[in-house]
Amino acid sequence: MKPQSIGRILGTGLRVAGRMAGERVAASANAVVNGPTTQQPSAEASAQTRAAGQTAGRAARGVARGIGGFLRPFRRVGGTVWLEVTGVFFFLFVVVFARALWMYRASYAQGPDHQKFLVSAPLLLVFLYLSVSSFWRARRR
């Protein structure tokens, strides 16, 4: 999204929100100055309430679109960074299991640490796959 359109969206949302706030302040000031007024008919009151709700909904949608447009590039970068951090985290397990595999290499066929070797090898492969795939997905973004 272009910076100009982000500014327009945010500016429009802020203008609408400011206009709504100004109307509310003016309405409350009139109520204080004029004192309590007579009850309006229920149909007219509900129409005013509905109109105010629609105006507030339009303003909220405008602000949400503006903020969403502003945060979109950061969301993409944040997702890429998250995948890279996850890849590093999984790679730490690869280092741990590679060290264990190296220590138990003499017992790969038979020996006292044969089961530890058999457990370390698949775990090393699983975490290596998770780490590499995480970096691969981050690169594709």
Short recap of the structure:
The protein has 141 residues and is an all-alpha fold. It is built from 3 helices and no strands. It has one domain.
What does this protein look like?
This protein is mostly helical and 141 residues long. Helix content is 86%, strand content 0%. The chain has helices at 3-34, 42-103, 114-140. It is rod-shaped, with a radius of gyration of 31 Å. The two termini are 17 Å apart. The mean pLDDT is 84.
Task: Give the secondary structure arrangement, pairings included.
Blueprint: H1 3-34, H2 42-103, H3 114-140
Helix pairs in contact: 1-2, 2-3
The 3D shape can be described as rod-shaped
Give the helix/strand class. mainly alpha
Instruction: Kindly report the average pLDDT value.
Output: 84
**Which percent band covers the strand fraction?**
under 5%
The H/E string reads HHH
Labels describing this entry:
single chain, 141 residues, mainly alpha, 3 helices, 86% helix
